[in-house]
Amino acid sequence: MFEHTARAAGLAAGYLADLCWADPQRGHPVAAFGTAAAALEKHTYADRRSAGVVHTAVLLGALGVLGVAAERAAARRGPAWTFAITAASTWAVLGGTSLARTGAQMADRLGGDDLVRARALLPSLCGRDPAALDADGLARAALESVAENTSDAQVAPILWGAVAGVPGLLVYRGANTLDAMIGHHSPRYERFGWAAARFDDAVNYLGARATGLCVVAVSGAPAEAWRAWRRDAGKHPSPNAGVAEASFAGALGVQLGGPTQYAHRLEMRPTLGDGPAPQARDLRRAVRLSRAVQALATVAAVSVASRIGRRASPRSSGA
């Protein structure tokens, strides 16, 4: 039985490892990928979409090949190795615990009126210009980031791990990292980052909606979360972030959106949810909600992986 559930057990173990140790301060595999991507960009960059397609395909293709090779090598050695490589990969790609801890730190700094340290912390959560934000703006930016990254850092990757194993985990995290590096609107990356941004949208589509369903299930305010999701998510410029942010806004009874200042531009975002602007206490509630959503998504992913393993078992034994 264990050989049919090694992937599921590895996902659970990787989640628990992230809970215990979160992201390392140095030598994180995701940081190593980012360094490699930046080095490759020196050779592939051109202000064209086609150059960005090549850049993205080379990097994510390499991660896919690495994941397939690692999983096949582990399978030849036995289920214990499959468990180990899945657990290690899951821990490496998940960022839910670091997200929650950073969100809680931001809430503490805002609650103590320490805006200098709150502004210094904001770049750990999102790419907005902290100098342009007051206490309410910092709280809103942090809460929106916690909502969006609950999907990006936890729900989507662990679901990809359930259905596609180690290759799914690695390619997903690579896509998400590339999107953060080059998939934004700026003079340099408007065209070169197009492929990375569109691929990230595709791989996050189901994860974002799973996040919304988890929010509805665990928030204690299912009707409000569902109503805000259905009414407001489509207004957001991102097809995926809007789902997470709107469902969080509805569940917490706050209003998100409005003027959003980035380093290169000001966006006028539509409002999501009903209620007052979020404050530090709402950010603390968002962190608790994020942790609950992460836990439920992990349970769902482990269940999916177990069911896939059971269905694959008869075919494998009859081959």
Automatic annotation (TrEMBL):
Q: Where in the cell is it found?
A: Cell membrane
Q: Which coarse location class describes where this protein primarily resides?
A: membrane
Q: Does the keyword Membrane apply?
A: yes
Name a single GO biological process: cobalamin biosynthetic process
Residues passing through the membrane, by range: 51-69, 81-100
According to UniProt, this protein's pathway is:
Cofactor biosynthesis; adenosylcobalamin biosynthesis
Keyword Membrane part of the UniProt annotation: yes
Q: GO CC: one term? A: plasma membrane
What PANTHER family has UniProt attached to this entry? COBALAMIN BIOSYNTHESIS PROTEIN CBIB (PTHR34308)
Family of this protein: Belongs to the CobD/CbiB family.
Record's function text: Converts cobyric acid to cobinamide by the addition of aminopropanol on the F carboxylic group.
Protein name per UniProt: Cobalamin biosynthesis protein CobD
Q: What's the source species for this entry?
A: Mycolicibacterium fluoranthenivorans
Protein encoded by which gene: cobD
